[in-house]
Design the sequence.
């Protein structure tokens, strides 16, 4: 593999993406995001009760450099699901609003789906808890 | 220092037929927000659509352009 030649940071990033079904590369930590875009993305994942791994890219500038080369994506945050780049804050927000993100993550909607009236109604509204 | 008008012009020049609306999100000349409508996006995933726009600016994203928030639409 091209990304294995003597590049421990690249290898660590590749391994982390492979080993974690949902992983967010961000500025800061979920508890203390260091950028509004990272904070917003964390908020969306948390509102869907998604378990995710988080990597802070700030401690070493090489993390961001290697990550962006690997993903061909220039900005932070970057969300990966099942080894694939889903997108940054804009795409994650858009997918959250359309319900695609919940679907991708297999997230539980906070709605009682055993209620026939709800089960019959094809669209489940996702409350935007970020506003 | 980038400005909204030049970012709009560069997007429209780089993607044939594209129509871009760009504003300076914070007024600070480094956080921009763009909505881009282009035939070129048809059939592409969101990731691919955003990459088409990001590629225009290369290393400037994360540099002088701290953030370029995108909404891409295929007409």
Sequence:
């Amino acid at each position: 593999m091209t990304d294995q030649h003597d590049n421990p940071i690249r290898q660590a990033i590749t391994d982390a993406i492979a080993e974690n079904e949902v992983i967010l590369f961000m500025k800061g930590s979920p508890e203390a995001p260091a950028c509004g875009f990272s904070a917003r993305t964390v908020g969306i994942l948390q509102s869907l009760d998604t378990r995710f791994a988080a990597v802070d890219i700030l401690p070493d500038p090489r993390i961001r450099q290697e990550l962006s080369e690997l993903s061909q994506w220039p900005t932070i945050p970057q969300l990966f699901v099942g080894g694939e780049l889903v997108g940054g804050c804009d795409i994650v927000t858009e997918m959250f609003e359309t319900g695609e993100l919940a679907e991708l993550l297999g997230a539980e909607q906070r709605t009682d789906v055993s209620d026939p009236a709800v089960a019959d109604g094809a669209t489940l509204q996702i409350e935007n808890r970020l506003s | 220092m980038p400005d909204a008008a030049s970012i709009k012009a560069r997007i429209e020049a780089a993607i044939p037929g594209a129509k871009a609306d760009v504003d300076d999100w914070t007024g600070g000349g480094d956080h921009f927000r763009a909505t881009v409508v282009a035939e070129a996006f048809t059939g592409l995933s969101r990731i691919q659509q955003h990459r088409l726009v990001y590629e225009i600016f290369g290393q400037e994203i994360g540099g002088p352009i701290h953030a370029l928030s995108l909404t891409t639409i295929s007409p």
